[in-house]
């Protein structure tokens, strides 16, 4: 296996589309750390670029749905960047997640959440249930940011250490599950 093949293909899904959103800044903060790793091949899937996703589930997939599902299919793992809205995650994120199904199976998913005192963790707990139904493996460790404080900077702070811990787990699970899917296709 070449060095490029060893790299784990990770789709970073930015799950907020609100005007004035913080999601883009949070994703940039995360990507500054993730791109320093040589074991990842990152694919940013920002839902703000998917304004043509249908609001209602159509009888046949649209081009936008197929494009989103291709990103999911190509990935060996995922990092979902999500805000917490009313103790859950955005509706646009749920709609996008539902546009793929088999493509999620047997792949790990980590979370970078943000909110206020809860650090977006209520959104993550809701997402864990959704990803369980999609046969994806959610990681134990994640990254939670408190928006009352500035976005954390520097290697000495807890959120940066949390990024490293989460990505270490994602890489381990991603390689293990990629090997397992190749040897034994996932039963759905």
* Largest beta-sheet characterization: 6 strands, parallel
Number of helices: 6
Radius of gyration based on Cα positions: 16 Å
Cα distance spanning the termini: 28 Å
Element-by-element helix/strand order: HEHEHEHEHEEH
Structural class: alpha/beta
- The dominant shape is globular
DSSP helix fraction: 25-40%
Beta fraction: 15-25%
List low-confidence stretches: none
Number of strands: 6
User: pLDDT average, as an integer?
Assistant: 92
Structure explained in plain terms:
- The chain is globular, with a radius of gyration of 16 Å.
- It is α/β, with parallel strands linked by helices and 188 residues long.
- It is built from 6 helices and 6 strands; from the N terminus they run αβαβαβαβαββα.
- The two termini are 28 Å apart.
- α4 links the parallel β3 and β4.
- The mean pLDDT is 92.
- The longest helix is centred in the last third of the chain and has 26 residues, at 158-183.
- Strands 1, 2, 3, 4, 5 and 6 form a 6-stranded parallel beta sheet that branches.
Topology of helices and strands:
Layout: H1 3-6, E1 8-14, H2 23-34, E2 40-46, H3 63-74, E3 77-83, H4 91-98, E4 108-115, H5 121-133, E5 137-138, E6 143-146, H6 158-183
Parallel strand pairs: 1-2, 1-3, 3-4, 4-5, 4-6
Short description:
The protein is 40% helix and 19% strand. The protein is an alpha/beta fold and 188 residues long.
Comma- or semicolon-separated keywords:
19% strand, 188 residues, globular, 40% helix, alpha/beta
